[in-house]
Specification:
globular; five-stranded mixed beta sheet; about 525 residues; seven-stranded mixed beta sheet; binds adenosine-5'-triphosphate; alpha+beta
Length: about 525
C-alpha cells in the first residue's frame, strides 16, 4: 500500500466508480460524514461482519450474541457517563468560520514535529553512518529540537486533557502558533465542550415527549442485558457477549471519508471476568485480536499498538490497535479494561442488583469487563486501503499496461468468482451458466460475457474478485476450465467437476483460522 493523500483520493473515487460506497443523499449535495454502501460495498461489509462474528461467537464456547435496540432508556446514558462526559473540545476559526477539534489540532501539530524530527535524524544518520539501533541515532532522535518540543507539547496537552481544562487547550494552540488550515490565521474562538450524542424525541406530543438519544456505542445494550443473558444462557464467568450494530456520534469534523462517520457500525465484545484477573484477559484479547487481523492480511508492520495517554472515565487500561491508513497510523480497534464501572453505575441508578453469583467461590460480585471494540466501517476502509494497488503488467500486445487491482483477502472480497465464456456462441455460454447455477448456492458469483477476456479480467481485478473462470473451446473437448488467480495472474486448468471443491478449499475458513491458532 502506498501512503499518500493522492492515493487516498484515488481510493475514494474507486469506491464510488465500482459501487462500493456513495455519499448519503448525494442527490441533495450529500449529508456530511454519512455514507451508503453500494452493491459491492454491502457484500464486503457483510463478509467482514460475518468473519468477526464467526471468530468471536461461533468459534468460541463461552461467548454468545445479542442484538439490543438502538433506542434505550435515557437513564442508561446518565449511568454510563455519556450525558456528562461524552464531549469533544471544539474551536472555531473566526476568519474561515471552520470548526475543528482542539485536541486533534494539537495532536496533528505534535505528529508533524515528530515527523520532522525523524527526517532530521535520518539525514544526520546517513551523513554520520549511524545505524537505526545505534546509541547515537536514538540519542539524536530523542534529543533534537523538534523532538523536545513535541515531548513538551505532549506533556502540557496530556495535563490539559486530564483536567478537562479548555482554557489551557486554547493557550497551547496559541503557544504552538497553530494556524487554521483554511484561512492560515490564528484568529481562534475559545475552546468549548461539545456533546457528541444525537438527541431525539420519544412520544407524539411535544409537551409530553421525552428526550432520548441515538446510542453512541453498542456496549451499553450489553451491560443492561448482562444478567438476562447470563441467566438465560447459563453462562459462568469468564464469558463474553458480542454484538454488532449501528452507533451514532455527532462528530465535529467530517473528514477522511468513512474513517469518521456520524452514523457507523460497531462490533463489540464485552468479556466478563473475575475482579483481579482483568490484566490477564486484557493481554489475551489484545493478542487474539492482533492474530485475527493478521489472519486476514493486516499483520505486522500494518498494525501497531498505542497505549492511551488519557484513560476514558471507565477504564483502568486501554490500548488502540492502529492501522497505517494513507493519512497515517490511526485507531482501528480499541481494547479496553473497563473495570466494573458500567455494571456498578447501572446497579446504582436502577436500584437493581446486577451481581453475579459465582458457584465456585460461593460469593456474589460485580464482574470486571474487558472489551474489544472495532468500527466495521473503519475495518472496511483499512482493508480497502491495504488492497488498493496500481501495478504495471504485461499487456496482450507485448507491451506494458497499468492495472488497478484490489488485492483483498479472498474471504473479504465481495465477489468470489467471475465466470467468463470465451465467446458468446458455440455452447460456451450454456456451460458457463450451468457452472454459475451450480456455484451460486455456495459463493457470490458473477457472470460476464462482454468484451475481450483481458478486459473482463481487468474489470474483476478492480472489484477484487479473487478467481476468474474461463470456459474456452478446449472445455468442449476436455471438460476442464481455466481458473485465473487475481494477484499472481497465474492460470490453472481444473476439471469442471472439481471446480466447486477447488473454490471451497481456497476459501476454507478452517484452513485460514486454524493456522493462526
Ligand atoms: P476516535 O478516537 O477515532 O474518535 P474513539 O476512541 O472515540 O475513536 P471508541 O469509542 O473506542 O472510539 O469506539 C470503538 C471503535 O469504533 C473505534 O476504534 C473505531 O473503529 C470505531 N469508531 C468510533 N467512532 C467512529 C466514527 N465516528 N466513525 C467510524 N468509526 C468509529
Amino acid at each position: 500500500m502506498t501512503t499518500s493523500p493522492d492515493v487516498f483520493q484515488k481510493i475514494v473515487s474507486h469506491t464510488k466508480e465500482h459501487g462500493f460506497i456513495f455519499q448519503s443523499s448525494e442527490l441533495y449535495d450529500g449529508l456530511g460524514a454519512v455514507y451508503d454502501y453500494g452493491p459491492l460495498g454491502v457484500l464486503m461489509k457483510n463478509n467482514l461482519r460475518e468473519l468477526w462474528w464467526t471468530s468471536m461467537v461461533r468459534l468460541q464456547d463461552n461467548i454468545v450474541g445479542l442484538d439490543a435496540a438502538i433506542l434505550m432508556h435515557p437513564q442508561v446514558w446518565k449511568a454510563s457517563g455519556h450525558i456528562d462526559a461524552f464531549n469533544d473540545p471544539l474551536i472555531d476559526n473566526k476568519d474561515s468560520k471552520k470548526r475543528y477539534r482542539a485536541d486533534v489540532l494539537i495532536e496533528e501539530f505534535i505528529e508533524k514535529l515528530e515527523q520532522k524530527s525523524q527526517k532530521e535524524t535520518d539525514k544526520k544518520a546517513t551523513k554520520e553512518g549511524w545505524s537505526v539501533d545505534s546509541d547515537e541515532y536514538q540519542r539524536f532522535l530523542k534529543g533534537n529540537r523538534d523532538a523536545k518540543k513535541a515531548q513538551e507539547t505532549q506533556e502540557k496537552f496530556s495535563v490539559a486533557m486530564e483536567n478537562n481544562d479548555m482554557v489551557a487547550l486554547k493557550s497551547l494552540i496559541e503557544e504552538c502558533g497553530i494556524t487554521c488550515p483554511e484561512s492560515g490565521t490564528r484568529n481562534w474562538t475559545d475552546v468549548r465542550q461539545f456533546n457528541l450524542m444525537f438527541k431525539a424525541q420519544l412520544g407524539a406530543l411535544a409537551e409530553e415527549s421525552t428526550d432520548i438519544y441515538l446510542r453512541p456505542e453498542t456496549a451499553q445494550g450489553i451491560f443492561v442485558n448482562f444478567l438476562n443473558v447470563q441467566k438465560s444462557s447459563r453462562m459462568k464467568v469468564p464469558f463474553g457477549i458480542a454484538q454488532t450494530g449501528k452507533a451514532f456520534r455527532n462528530e465535529i469534523i467530517a473528514r477522511q471519508f468513512i474513517f469518521r462517520m456520524r452514523e457507523f457500525e460497531q462490533m463489540e465484545m464485552q468479556y466478563f471476568v473475575k475482579p483481579g484477573t482483568q490484566q490477564q484477559w486484557y493481554a489475551y484479547w489484545k493478542s487474539e485480536r492482533l492474530k485475527w487481523h493478521a489472519t486476514l492480511g493486516l499483520g505486522v508492520g500494518k498494525i501497531r499498538t498505542h497505549v492511551h495517554e488519557k484513560l476514558a472515565h471507565y477504564a483502568d487500561a486501554a490500548e488502540d490497535l492502529q492501522f497505517q491508513f494513507p493519512f497515517g497510523f490511526k485507531e482501528l480497534e480499541g481494547i479496553h479494561s473497563r473495570t466494573d464501572f458500567d455494571l456498578k453505575q447501572h446497579q446504582e441508578l436502577s436500584g437493581r442488583k446486577l451481581q453475579y453469583f459465582d458457584p465456585e467461590e460461593n460469593a456474589s460480585y460485580l464482574p470486571y469487563v474487558v472489551e474489544t471494540s472495532i468500527g466495521l466501517d473503519r475495518l472496511f476502509l483499512a482493508h480497502l486501503c491495504d488492497a488498493f494497488t496500481e501495478e504495471n503488467v504485461p499487456s496482450g500486445n507485448g507491451s506494458e499496461e497499468t492495472r488497478t487491482v484490489l488485492k483483498l483477502h479472498p474471504l473479504v472480497a465481495p465477489v468470489k468468482v467471475a465466470i467468463f465464456p470465451l465467446v458468446k456462441k458455440d455452447g460456451l455460454p450454456e456451460i458457463a451458466q450451468n457452472l454459475l447455477n451450480d456455484l451460486k448456492y455456495n459463493f457470490q458469483v458473477t457472470y460476464d460475457e462482454k468484451d475481450a477476456v483481458g478486459r473482463r479480467y481487468r474489470r474483476q481485478d478492480a472489484k477484487g474478485t479473487p478467481f476468474g473462470i474461463t470456459i474456452d473451446y478446449d472445455t468442449l473437448k476436455d471438460e476442464a476450465v481455466t481458473i485465473r488467480d487475481r494477484d499472481s495472474m497465474l492460470q490453472t486448468r481444473v476439471p469442471l467437476v472439481q471446480v466447486k471443491d477447488w473454490i471451497t478449499k481456497s476459501l476454507s475458513l478452517q484452513s485460514y483460522f486454524k493456522e493462526s491458532k
